[in-house]
Structure of Nuclease HARBI1:
Amino acid sequence: MSHNANLSDGFGSSNVNEYNEWEARVVQENRQLDVIMSELLISILNISGEARLMKDYFVENPMYGEENFRGRFRMQKPLFLRIVEAVTANDRYFQQRRLSPLQKCTGAMRVLAYGTLVDAHDEYLSMSVNVTRDALVKFVEGVISCFHEEYLRRPNQDDLARLLHVGEESGFPGMVSSIDCMHWEWKNCPTAWAGQYVGRSDKTTIILEVVASYDLWIWHTFFGTPSSFDDINVLQRSPLFDDVLAGQALKVSYTVNDRENHMAYYITDDIHPSWVAFVKLINSPQLRKHKLFVEHHEAARKDVD
């Protein structure tokens, strides 16, 4: 015999209905209480995570000073705060108060700075894996949206004139920047792709090609090429000289040994091919002038290194 049937025998159908309504109200109220307690607990954890972050880095006398901040975030604190302010104003995602903009941006920046998993800092910042992943994507999108017009572009005529002036002051008239390639380990490379991305080190890596100037401005990046390539044949895929081939390169004029030239060049190591666009390092210099050239060459290349 059912529970409701027993109640009906003792109390009547009206009492059974009242009991059912009371039971339903209790279940609903318990559910509401569970939601309130969960939100309260999350709020407490978020507040503690934000308070911990503020105490460690962002109060007037933080536990970790400017030097520690730069070492852990790979940038100065004023620059980081400028980025936080820009991406917060640009995207409502960072304006939502469940987590502070500093928590979200710090979580994203820690993943970028150390290349760690998204769950590596969840306890410290009181952020779940999903929130950290979303914050990372939104942070990268925000940086690109806010700063691409200024920092993700090729040099204009004024920039080129400044770069040529600095190059001439360094003893390299006509030099615009330094170029170099490096092999970057790809820890999470898909198994199906691993074979083509394994290089000399027997690790899955990709090639990163970069052009950087004296002020550490990165004018050109090209990455993703399998490590079975090298500094020479990666140029066959790189868009570095697309504007030159299309006849859209900026005009350059400089004089060396009383001869006027109209093609700018990059300084690079000895691995790159012997093209007019590259001034390479001299290996094992013997003559005094060659040694002097190597000294100036290495000093100018330290930016991209």
